[in-house]
TrEMBL record:
InterPro entries: MBL_superfamily_lactonases, Metallo-B-lactamas, RibonucZ/Hydroxyglut_hydro. It comes from Sebaldella termitidis (strain ATCC 33386 / NCTC 11300). Gene3D superfamilies: Ribonuclease Z/Hydroxyacylglutathione hydrolase-like. It comes from the Bacteria. Residues 87-282 form the Metallo-beta-lactamase domain. Belongs to the metallo-beta-lactamase superfamily. Residues 1-18 form the signal peptide. Pfam families: Lactamase_B (PF00753). This is Beta-lactamase domain protein. GO terms for molecular function: hydrolase activity; metal ion binding. Keywords: Hydrolase, Metal-binding, Signal, Zinc.
Amino acid sequence: MKKIILLLSILFISVLHADTVKIQKTQVPGYYRFMVGSYEVTSIYDGYSNLPLDTYKGIDAANAEAIIKKEYSHISGSGKNFSFKVSVNTFLINTGKELILVDTGSGNSMGPATGAVKKNIEMAGYKPEDITKIIFTHLHPDHVGGLSEGGKQVYPNAVIYANEKEMDFWMNNSDFNKEFKDILNTYKNNKKYKALKDGAEIAAGIKGVLLPGHTIGHMGYEITSGGQKLLIWGDITHGYEVQFANPDVTTAYDYDQNQAKETRKALMKKVSDEGTMTAGSHLPFPGLGHVAPNADGKGYRWIPVQYVPLD
Ligand SMILES: [Zn+2]
C-alpha cells in the first residue's frame, strides 16, 4: 500500500513538473448526423475558404468588416488584408435504400484547407463506391471539384444530376477547368448524367428546386420524409454574418446579381415564415439550422442546430 502511495505521489509530482503537455490540435471528425423523418442526413465537411471583403457587392467594405467582427467570426488581417472564414459543406442522404450525395466539395481544386469530403464520408461509416446518386447544386469548383482525383472517378457507381442549363453553360465555357470537363464528359458518355429541371424528383421525397442567380441553373434540394422537411439551399449565402442581416448584399461570384438578390430575399422569407429546417453549403459547419426574422424587422438571423445525439 505504501509503495502504491509513493508511486502515485511520484506520478503526481512528475505531472506537476512536466515541462510540456502536447497540444493535440486534431479536430473532431468532420461529419454531423440528423434525421429528416426516416431519412438520415449527414453533413460532410470539405474544409474552409478565406474570403476577402471584396467578395461582397452592395455594401461598404468597412461596414461589412464591422458586421463580421461583431459576430466574433473567424477572421484574419484587417482592411485590404481582411479575410473571413467560410465553411464548405456537403450533405449525404441515406434513404434506407440508397446513398445520395449533394455536391462533392473541392477535391484538389481549392488548396489544402479543403478537399476532405471523401475522407469524412469514410469517417462517417460509408464508402464512396456505395454512393449511387450525386446531385449538384451547381458546378463551381468547391462543389464539383471532388468528383475526380487525378482524373479518376471518386464515385465510380454514381449517376450524376445537375440542372440542364447549368451543365450546358459550363461545358460550353472555355474557362471551365479541364479536369472537371473531362470527368463530367466521362459521366455523360457513359449515360450516367441526368439533366434536371425545376421540380424534378430524384428519389421518393427528394426534389430539385431551381434557385437561380448565383449561377444560371443553381438548384436547391427539398427532402421530405415522415412529415418533416429540410431544404438544402446551396450557395444562397456565402458569409452568413453579412447576408442574413442584409439579404440585398450579393457577391462577386454571383452570375446575375439582381436575380441572386431576389432569389435570396424570397427564399429567406419563405423558410422563415414556414420554419423550414435549412442547410447551406457555406453556413458554419454543420451548416444546419433555421432562419428567423430580426426583431427590428430588418433582415434575418441564423439559428444553428445544437449538437444532439440521435435516439
Ligand atoms: Zn460555393
